[in-house]
Amino acid sequence: MSKAEKNRCRRRCAARTDRFTIISLTVSLIAVLIPLLFMGDVTGRLFHEFAITLAATIVISAAVSLTLVPMMSARLIHHRPDAERNRFDLAADRGFKKNHRTVRPGA
Q1: What is the distance between the alpha carbons of residues 70 and 76, in angstroms, rounded to a whole number?
Q2: Do 62 and 23 form a contact (C-beta atoms < 8 A)?
């Protein structure tokens, strides 16, 4: 298996694990908004439009998270040898490693 195939397989596995989380969060957030749709009186009329707008926004966000974000990540994030990396990239990597050691000292 070539290096490109391994990277493709890793991206698919990562997208598969994220997919369940995104879908479950979307469904649960929309489920929370359902009672607002069925409220009566003046308060119900005010919250009806709010609930529909919020639900549409959540669905659009989920669609972007499931389609655009994995494609952009696959295109923008890739491993480069240290000789090809710029100062910002190296500094960001050092900061990430320092943060990782702080959060998980034993890892």
Answers
A1: 10
A2: yes
